[in-house]
Design a protein that fits this description.
This protein is of the alpha/beta class. It has two domains: 306 residues, Up-down Bundle (ABC transporter transmembrane region fold), CATH 1.20.1560.10; 246 residues, 3-Layer(aba) Sandwich (Rossmann fold), CATH 3.40.50. Helix content is 60%, strand content 9%. A six-stranded mixed beta sheet has the order 6-7-8-3-9-10, sandwiched between helices. A hairpin with a 2-residue loop joins β9 and β10. The chain is elongated and about 120 Å long.
């Protein structure tokens, strides 16, 4: 049973990295002109802070007390004009702040998204989707506040404080000094809670990311189906209640720490106001200054503590914003494991691209290749994997997966990989498509080391169909065109016909514009595989890497997929993880993988005669299926005239609604 989690201190107690502020300045540099205009507007708005109290002084001392109506009317008109100017400045400042803020969000999101796209496959096998989304959403939003909200708050309040203090000294240095003596009492509460609030902020972000990740996993079709099939709805609700409860609790604690500062400021403001009216009132009675000055002093002192209070909270705001920036930088600082060399060259295509077929496909060569999967520290972040207390990696998890593997997949021919589960077959195919790089040795296509060619040209030459073909929640057309966006209607139809899927697509209510659903769940397993093969045909690669996708299909789907595969593999250099007896027999060579090594290689008959691991696999898996083929095949029909399944398990029922 899944349980609650404990916070990992290494995640929530991290300190800000050196150089964070310098990097933030770099992001603000492209907006220096609108930022300067924004700060100028903020400065003017701050200067207006002292105008109204001084105008109030003039109305009382020179208008109301002397009973001069003209002065009252003139000063009141000036008050109205100042209010209008303040409103205009508010609109101008808002326009500049929106332009700067939204621009920063745009820049940061695009940079993080592009950087994540360059991460290796191992990164995505470890990172929680919700945590990644949180970096692109909540953290980016928090980061832009560091420049727009926090910066304007600091500049505006500092300027306001300076102007107000200067005016206060002008009106009465004695009252001002008495008020300033109490200012340190405003700062102390903020300093006491700011460090704690920084930790709470980071912890809250992590908890929200964990809760979001859980929702992402449970709200997709596969996750929802798993919950329902195992009847765990109540347990899932309980687990979510625990996670959301932690978010609630940390929100309450954070709010209370903020309230400590607010209450301290409120109490001290009331105390200072009492002191001002007590001392200032006595001075008015003694004739030191007039009542208008006292009212102006009280107004200004009320306003002086507002910026002080906000500046006290600015430390909290700054730390919150810096934590957001720091979390974004954590992702941007992850170095992609698979990098393109500065002098990388395009991998040449040997075939005629205009025909979208390879006339002379390149060979694949493994030269003394050894490989181990990267550790978590090499490809990921603890804060992206989970906020649960980290579990040490299993002993041997980073041990060698491939050991001194050498072979050649001949040009334009089919090479089959067979072997027990976990032997290293999928790892070999991942190296061909350069999802990973070998630790030792080299993988080459057409004589070119894959580490020396551009990634774009490699993706153009190598086509991959996985056993679980992924579809985006989009139309059939969009999923097909993902391979070649420029493909026209006729090319899409031709690829679907070759993949034995066009009859189904044209019978759908919206044809190519039918939505396939989350991960293609409106299509059956066989239908998804044929759409994936059509997508491969549109790409027209010269090398095909295939985790043969017929092991879990019904007989009819197997036959159709096998026909589509014949078209897809014809004339191309193919490396196939074989699940079917027919694929094994038709291969020009069979590589038997066990324990990360090629233990046998050769043709079907030769390997049977050698009576090694392949012969054992044949006796336990293939022989029974071959007998079943003979029983199902009509008399006189050659065994190669129809597909022969390696597994008869039916997993191809359609998920398309009736």
């Amino acid at each position: 049973m899944m349980r609650g989690f404990r916070m990992d201190p290494s995640v929530t107690k991290q300190k800000l990295k050196p150089g964070t502020i310098r990097r933030i300045v770099g992001y603000a540099r492209p907006y220096r002109v609108p930022l300067a205009a924004f700060l100028l507007g903020t400065s003017l708005d701050s200067a207006i802070t002292v105008v109204n109290p001084l105008l109030l002084r003039e109305i009382i001392d020179r208008g109301i007390l002397p009973r001069d109506v003209t002065v009252v009317i003139v000063v009141a008109s000036i008050v109205a004009g100042v209010a209008l100017l303040d409103a205009v400045l508010g609109f101008v400042n808002r326009w500049f702040s929106a332009r700067i803020g939204e621009g920063l969000i745009y820049d940061l999101r695009n940079q993080v998204f592009g950087h994540v796209q360059r991460q290796p496959l191992a990164f995505f096998t470890r990172a929680q989707t919700g945590s990644l989304v949180s970096r692109l959403d909540a953290d980016v939003m928090g980061a832009q506040q560091a420049i727009v909200g926090t910066l304007s708050s600091v500049v505006g309040n500092v300027l306001s404080l300076g102007v107000i203090l200067a005016t206060l000294f002008y009106l009465s240095w004695l009252v001002t000094v008495i008020a300033l003596v109490l200012i340190p009492l405003f700062i102390i509460p903020a300093r006491l809670v700011s460090r704690r609030l920084q930790r709470l902020t980071r912890e809250g972000m992590q908890l929200n990311a964990e809760m979001g990740s859980m929702m992402n996993e449970r709200f997709n079709v596969a996750g929802a189906m798993l919950v329902k099939l195992f009847g765990r709805s109540r347990e899932e609700a309980d687990l979510f209640r625990v996670k959301s409860g932690k978010v609630r609790d940390i929100g309450v604690v954070t709010a209370m720490y903020g309230q400590v500062v607010f209450v301290a400021v409120t109490l001290l403001t009331a105390l200072i106001t009492a002191v001002v009216y007590g001392v200032g009132g006595s001075m008015v009675i003694d004739g030191v200054f007039q009542i208008g000055s006292l009212v102006a002093l009280a107004q200004l002192l009320t306003r002086v503590y507002a910026p002080i209070a906000q500046l006290s909270n600015v430390q909290v705001q700054v730390m919150t914003a810096l934590v957001s920036f720091d979390r974004v930088f954590e992702v941007l600082d992850l170095e992609p494991l698979i990098k393109e060399k500065p002098d990388a060259v395009p991998l040449p295509r040997l075939g005629d691209n205009s025909n979208k077929r390879a006339d002379a496909a390149p060979e694949i060569r493994f030269d003394h290749v050894s490989f181990r999967y990267p550790t978590a520290a090499e490809v990921s972040l603890a804060s992206l994997e989970s906020i649960a207390l980290k579990v040490p990696e299993r002993a041997g998890a980073a041990a060698g997966v491939l050991h001194d593997v050498s072979f050649t997949a001949p040009s334009g021919q089919l090479t089959a990989l067979v072997g027990p589960s976990g032997a290293g077959k999928t790892t070999i195919t991942h190296l061909v498509s350069r999802m990973y790089d070998p630790n030792d040795g080299a993988v080459s296509i057409g004589g070119h080391d894959l580490r020396d060619v551009t990634l774009e040209s490699l993706r153009d030459v190598v086509g991959v169909v996985t056993q679980d073909a992924h579809m985006f929640h989009d139309t059939v057309r969009a999923n097909l065109a993902y391979a070649r966006p420029s493909a026209g209607e006729a090319e899409l139809i031709a690829a679907c016909q070759a993949a034995q899927i066009w009859d189904l697509i044209k019978a759908l209510p919206d044809g190519l514009d039918t939505i396939v659903g989350d991960r293609g769940y409106r299509l059956s397993g066989g239908e998804k595989q044929r759409v994936a093969i059509a997508r491969l045909l549109l790409k027209a690669p010269e090398v095909v890497v295939l985790d043969e996708a017929t092991a879990h299909l019904d007989s009819e789907s197997e036959a159709l997929v096998q026909q589509a595969l014949k078209v897809a593999l014809d004339g191309r250099t193919s490396l196939v993880i074989a699940h079917r007896l027919s694929t094994v027999r038709e291969a020009s060579q069979i590589l038997v993988v066990d324990g990360g090594r090629i233990v046998e290689s050769g043709g079907h008959a030769d390997l049977l005669a050698a009576d090694g691991l392949y012969a054992e696999l044949y006796r336990t898996q293939f022989a029974g299926q071959e007998r079943q083929e003979r029983q199902e095949r009509p008399a006189g029909q050659d065994r190669h005239d129809q597909p022969q399944p390696l597994c008869r398990t039916d997993r191809g029922a359609s998920h398309r609604p009736a």
